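Friendly challenge for the regulars: who can give me the structure tokens for this chain first? No prize, just bragging rights.
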Amino acid sequence: MKRRDFIVRSGALALGTLALAGKQASAWMPASALPAPGLQLYTVMGVIDKDLDGTLKRLSEMGYRNLESAFSMKGGFYGLSATEFASKAKSFGLSWQAHHTMGAPFKMPAGAKPPVGADGKPMVIPPMKNLRDNAQEIVDGVAAGGVKYLVCASTPLDTWDEVKQSTETLAKTGELCRKAGIGFAYHNHTKEFEKVEGQVPFDYMAAQLSPKEVKFELDLAWATKAGINPVELFRKHPGRFPLWHVKDLDKASFKPVEIGAGYIDFKPIFENASVSGLEYYFVEQDQAPAPLDNLNNSLQALRKLI
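First reply, four minutes later:
Bragging rights claimed.
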């Protein structure tokens, strides 16, 4: 091979290698670039209403820094206004980043049992505001607290009419959030990926809703249980998953367990965080038997995994 040809071909190969490396680098996010650890306060539902300060203090000491709030039996935001709760969280070195609310009036799933409190007794759930009926009030409330995202935690999807009605509610709420200067996202369970009258709700939502006004909070565990590969979903809808729920599942029962005690492979998911558009992730364990201890163990395990 002539020297000139060798140089040209070598240069082309080098440029091709750099281009490929650039594509790989864009999909990979080192642990040092990941957001600070966050948690979904639904995990401590049985204890936080009884001891707000003590719970926030313990969570901060564990190393959590970002919070996503949920329904409180005391009303408001754990008995406080939005501005009061934001200030309270900040006093413990915690940042309130997101809040969960219902898409439509709450109804207990068929055969489901109400959550159990710290005393071991079923909780009596008071009425909850929802986006279908109280969207403006909810948006104004969380915006006053300075949260980055309002999140629809769940919405009826049992019939296709419910899917369409829920999607319309999400679209309207997304517009209200944009006007209020905050983000809006939808949180999945498994239902979103299961066919309803021959169609997949998530696919319909993703197509119908504006990517600029409605993002998704991917619950990694429920998506995986539904047979969805989170990384493939990120690549199909890049940048549309700024929020995650990091939850592990027992391989036999599919019940939530501490991170590392289940079968979810988090490493490749976190390595593709930039593809998803990740801004915050929240550790969660539904019906955790020892919430604070479970959250501490999960965070330590997650640090080792990623």
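Strands lie at 38-40, 66-69, 95-102, 149-154, 183-187, 215-219, 243-246, 248-249, 256-257, 280-283. Confidence is low (pLDDT under 50) at residues 1-26. Your move, everyone else.
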